[in-house]
């Protein structure tokens, strides 16, 4: 293998698995260290720069960072990265002085944002400090989009939404709420706007066209519409017996909301197996905790009704079969159909994009599924001045994806408005700084002792199930937050090897607690991975390979198992190993990257 090229942003970024996995590339270890140091406002601002909504995401993020967490490789569960974000949000002081300053004189460019959800608000936050006049249109009376409409208040209190949305709207944004855009053509004909960003989400829930659907329509509700009606207090009750159809996070929100609005017998019924459900594991766990059964491998066939009143749903029992390629197919089990009685049904089987307001003769091309054709890097549509982001660009995902896409779209809009190439993407800024303070002392806590994940305290069911607005999760207190923060392995503090001063004593090999380091003859990667002290079987993470040493051997370190404990650097008699903090700053709109 060739010597590993560690220069540039990507190699060590990929070793910080949590940050690499985060769509917005939030510097997770950095803000966790700040929490451990009691610097909650600083931790909040590190988050705010990257993910824009720390308090909201600290309660609702889909946590792509946590499966990647290195702690999960040495213990059963990763660091509670998401809930530590909430610790920073809950304990910060007034951070308004740290928010961007809006220039007294604007740059003469105006950008229209259609929708006031997380993607559009991110674009607004990035462009307003650059002097853009940002105009946001939304049909709702309050900004927030799906954050406000579809996430129940017992998961995300309204005051948290208000606070973090206001941090953005307070940046001089021209908010035109209650003004729905019904025609993109009309908007484009207004020559005021130099660019348009579409962030309208995926506002339409899928329906089920089954026998009895029309006859029993009064008690069959589309899940996301029903959640919106609850959020805006148009609905405050539901029948005693409720069936929720679907296995995603929306279905989990529907069933848990139903329990709080009078549903005593609430069931979730899914066509797939439990492990195949799209809902996050913790969302399913929360539903089961609230005594909501989840029934699997049942496909709805018919809504039953008497005199126009819904009486139940008939299901066909299915089983999963796999062909020789491992592809799954659901087939009838041959068992008799099952009938479940109910008073209301909530249909949560997926969401769709809807663009009836975008005329098809404008130059915005759509694919066969009715989705706009959008460049995956620039988020520019086939009509150059129109950009998309969030769910409206590539379909329903989590808030953190909308934020990441909003950042990228803002870069493109800024470049477009300044007559620059939108494909010229600015690289992030990086730095590497030694953490050595003495022979056996480092500027970070490198304890690698075992410590099981701490559980987030919950409000008792007797209290929480009586109030749809009462937050269930209480969050970590300061003591638990500190204890959980201490579980972080500081993966951004990198082991850096200097082969010219290595004397090949193998002391680092002897002391490494996980056999991550090997000195051996070089070879092809497939061969080399099998000749290490511990075979490196995770092909998704690179090997760190030195240049040739004096004996002709090379140093090979398996980044997959390294705990960043620094024992190799402490033991090395020549200082060939050093622990250096890797910092990555994603470049946002209008910024020029700088290596520090």
Can you tell me about this structure?
The structure is a single chain. The protein is of the alpha/beta class and 596 residues long. It is 28% helix and 19% strand. The chain contains 21 helices and 24 strands. The chain has a 5-stranded parallel beta sheet, with helices on one face. Helix 3 crosses helix 7 (81-91) and helix 5 packs antiparallel against helix 7 (81-91). The model has no long low-confidence stretch (mean pLDDT 94).
Concise synopsis of the structure shown:
The chain has 596 residues and is an alpha/beta fold. It is built from 21 helices and 24 strands.
Secondary structure layout:
Elements: H1 10-15, H2 17-21, H3 28-36, H4 40-51, H5 54-60, H6 65-68, H7 81-91, E1 110-114, H8 118-127, E2 133-138, H9 146-149, H10 158-169, E3 174-177, H11 184-189, E4 195-198, E5 204-205, E6 220-222, H12 223-231, E7 241-245, H13 249-260, E8 265-269, H14 281-289, E9 294-295, E10 298-306, E11 309-322, E12 328-332, E13 338-341, E14 344-347, E15 351-352, E16 386-388, H15 391-394, H16 399-417, E17 429-434, E18 436-438, E19 441-442, H17 461-464, H18 478-485, E20 493-497, H19 507-511, E21 517-520, H20 525-530, E22 543-545, E23 554-558, H21 567-571, E24 577-585
Parallel strand pairs: 1-2, 1-4, 2-3, 4-16, 6-14, 7-8, 7-14, 8-9
Antiparallel strand pairs: 5-15, 10-11, 11-12, 11-13, 17-24, 18-19, 20-24, 21-23, 22-23
Helix pairs in contact: 3-4, 3-7, 3-18, 4-7, 5-7, 7-18, 8-16, 12-13, 13-14
């Amino acid at each position: 293998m060739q010597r590993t090229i560690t220069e540039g942003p990507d190699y060590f970024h990929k070793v910080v698995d949590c940050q690499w996995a985060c769509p917005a590339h939030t510097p997770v270890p950095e803000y966790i260290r700040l929490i451990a140091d009691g610097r909650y406002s600083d931790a909040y601002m590190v988050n705010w720069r990257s993910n824009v909504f720390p308090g909201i995401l600290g309660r609702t993020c889909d946590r792509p960072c946590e499966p990647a967490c290195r702690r999960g490789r040495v213990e059963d569960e990763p660091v509670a990265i998401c809930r530590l974000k909430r610790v920073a949000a809950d304990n910060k002081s007034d951070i308004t002085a740290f928010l961007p300053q809006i220039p007294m004189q604007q740059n003469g460019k105006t950008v229209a944002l259609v929708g006031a959800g997380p993607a559009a608000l991110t674009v607004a936050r990035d462009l307003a400090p650059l002097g853009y006049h940002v105009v946001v249109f939304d049909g709702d009376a309050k900004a927030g989009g799906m954050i406000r409409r579809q996430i129940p208040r017992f998961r995300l209190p309204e005051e948290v939404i208000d606070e973090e949305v206001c941090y953005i709207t307070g940046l001089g944004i021209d908010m035109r709420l209650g003004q729905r855009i019904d025609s993109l053509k009309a908007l484009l004909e207004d020559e005021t706007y130099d660019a348009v960003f579409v962030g309208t989400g995926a506002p339409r829930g899928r329906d089920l066209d089954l026998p009895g659907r029309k006859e029993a329509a009064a008690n069959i509700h589309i899940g996301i519409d029903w959640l919106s009606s609850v959020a805006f207090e148009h609905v405050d009750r539901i029948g005693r017996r409720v069936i929720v159809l679907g296995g995603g996070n929306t279905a989990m929100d529907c069933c848990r909301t139903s329990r709080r609005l009078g549903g005593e017998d609430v069931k979730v019924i899914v066509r797939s197996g439990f492990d195949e459900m799209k809902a996050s594991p913790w969302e399913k766990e929360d539903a089961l905790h609230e005594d909501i059964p989840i029934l699997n491998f049942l496909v709805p066939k018919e809504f039953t009704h008497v005199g126009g009143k819904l009486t139940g749903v008939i299901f066909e029992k299915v089983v999963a079969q796999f062909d020789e390629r491992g592809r799954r197919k659901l087939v009838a089990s041959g068992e008799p159909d099952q009938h479940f009685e109910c008073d209301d049904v909530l249909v949560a089987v997926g969401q769709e994009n809807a663009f009836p307001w975008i005329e098809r003769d404008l130059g915005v091309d759509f694919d066969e599924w009715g989705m706009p054709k959008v460049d995956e890097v620039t988020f520019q549509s086939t009509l150059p001045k129109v950009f998309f982001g969030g769910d409206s660009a590539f379909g329903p995902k989590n808030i953190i994806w909308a934020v990441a896409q909003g950042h990228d779209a803002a870069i493109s809009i800024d470049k477009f408005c300044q007559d620059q190439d939108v494909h010229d993407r600015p690289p992030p800024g990086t730095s590497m700084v030694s953490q050595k303070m003495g022979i056996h002392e480092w500027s970070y806590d490198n304890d690698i002792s075992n410590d099981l994940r701490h559980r987030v305290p919950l409000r008792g069911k007797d209290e929480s199930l009586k109030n749809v607005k009462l937050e269930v999760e209480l969050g970590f207190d300061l003591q638990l937050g500190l204890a959980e923060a201490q579980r972080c392995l500081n993966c951004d503090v990198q082991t850096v090897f200097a082969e010219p001063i290595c004397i090949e004593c193998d002391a680092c090999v002897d002391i490494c607690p996980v056999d991550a380091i090997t000195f051996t003859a070089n070879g092809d990667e497939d061969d080399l991975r099998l000749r290490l002290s511990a075979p490196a079987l995770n092909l998704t993470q690179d090997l760190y390979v030195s240049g040739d040493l004096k004996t002709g051997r090379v140093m090979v370190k398996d980044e997959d198992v390294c705990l960043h404990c620094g024992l190799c650097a402490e033991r090395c008699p020549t200082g060939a190993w050093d622990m250096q903090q890797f910092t990555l700053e994603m470049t946002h709109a209008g910024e020029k990257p700088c290596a520090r």
